[in-house]
């Protein structure tokens, strides 16, 4: 991950004037006032404080530390009714004597939920176009893979509601832009950076998102979780139920497909993702649940798959990189015309 610069990492900064480090009383009163300015209207109960000490003689430094450190903490506690807690703080102040700045970093808030996506034009997260790398070309929208993303839509509501600076989206896996996410939805966690507001009515927030983006996305089951949940959500293994529209090159005998029986499938990394992932053969399984003919060459297929199965490739066969496939079982070339995730199990 890119290292954040100071302005992103810290909520805000105020400069302080103080020059004479050897007048601790005046120094502390100025620092207290600056910290008060920074902390104004921000919700936190506990704080920690760090110092970047000035380049002065060892003797002077020792004197400065002794006179400032503990007094400052005690004054913040009594004046602003906050508790110092170096292990689990809601706010971290950094007093930088060299740059003459006081900075504040607010602890991120992690909100977990599920999302559904009802549009084939909305991606999960915001991605730059791979062809032009964000410059903008004929194949993209202003340099982005898709005009909108779940991440970006959530940010439009979450950031102003929490008076926060940034939102990072962590999904339990992902679906392609053109795949709908239905059913109970896909688990996600949004990490909200520098939230001034922490006391949230999650139900109201949920309603707000669902009303504003009706027909595009919806979210449910919001809860505040610890940071450790991010890794759990990202690494969870899910079986999935899909609904595909399969389109075949010629007439088909749909009866050739055996339903409700686990089919072991070997999948070599698909051609379309080859550049991003290692070229490996992965052993997966698929169970065909239902077929429903649309016409002589097309049918709906409901299928359950192991975590990480490439469904579009299981249907087409991906030039025999995926075996068996719907194409090989029907002995006719097939493609996945449309795909929806019906349920994440
Ligand atoms: Zn482009």
Automatic annotation (TrEMBL):
Gene3D superfamilies for the chain: 3.30.70.2510, 3.30.70.3190
Keyword tRNA processing: yes
MF terms (GO), sorted A to Z: RNA binding; tRNA pseudouridine(55) synthase activity
Keyword Transferase: no
Top-level taxon of the source organism: Archaea
InterPro entries: PsdUridine_synth_cat_dom_sf, Pus10-like, Pus10-like_C
First and last residue of the signal peptide: none
NCBIfam families the record matches: pseudo_Pus10arc
Name listed for the protein in its UniProt record: tRNA pseudouridine(55) synthase
Lineage of the organism: Archaea, Candidatus Iainarchaeota, Candidatus Iainarchaeia, Candidatus Iainarchaeales, Candidatus Iainarchaeaceae
């Amino acid at each position: 991950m890119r290292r954040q610069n100071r302005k992103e990492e810290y909520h805000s900064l105020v400069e302080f004037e103080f020059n004479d480090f050897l007048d601790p009383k005046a120094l502390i009163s100025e620092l207290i006032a600056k910290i008060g300015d920074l902390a104004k209207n921000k919700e936190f109960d506990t704080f920690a404080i760090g110092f970047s000490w000035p380049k002065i003689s060892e003797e002077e430094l020792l004197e400065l530390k002794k006179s400032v450190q503990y007094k400052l903490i005690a004054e913040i506690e009594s004046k602003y009714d906050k508790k110092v807690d170096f292990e689990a703080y809601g706010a971290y102040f950094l007093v930088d004597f060299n740059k003459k700045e006081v900075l504040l970093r607010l602890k991120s808030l992690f909100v977990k939920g599920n999302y559904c996506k009802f549009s084939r034009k909305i991606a999960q997260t915001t991605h730059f176009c791979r062809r032009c790398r964000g410059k903008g070309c004929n194949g993209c929208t202003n340099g982005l893979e898709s005009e909108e993303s779940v991440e970006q839509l959530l940010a439009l509501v979450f950031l102003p509601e929490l008076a926060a600076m940034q939102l990072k989206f962590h999904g339990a896996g992902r679906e392609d832009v053109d795949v709908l996410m239905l059913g109970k939805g896909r688990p996600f966690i949004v990490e909200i950076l520098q939230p001034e507001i922490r006391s949230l009515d999650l139900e109201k927030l949920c309603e707000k998102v669902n009303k504003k983006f009706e027909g595009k996305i919806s979210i449910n089951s919001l809860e505040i979780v610890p940071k450790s949940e991010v890794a759990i959500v990202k690494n969870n293994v899910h079986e999935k139920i899909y609904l595909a529209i399969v389109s075949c090159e010629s007439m088909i005998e749909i009866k050739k497909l055996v339903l409700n029986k686990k089919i072991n499938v070997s999948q070599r990394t698909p051609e379309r993702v080859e550049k991003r992932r290692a070229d490996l053969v992965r052993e997966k399984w698929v169970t065909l649940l239902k077929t429903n003919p649309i016409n002589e060459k097309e049918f709906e297929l409901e299928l359950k798959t192991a975590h990480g199965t490439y469904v579009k490739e299981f249907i087409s066969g991906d030039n025999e990189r995926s075996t068996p496939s719907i194409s090989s079982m029907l002995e006719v070339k097939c493609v996945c015309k449309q795909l929806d995730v019906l349920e994440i199990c």
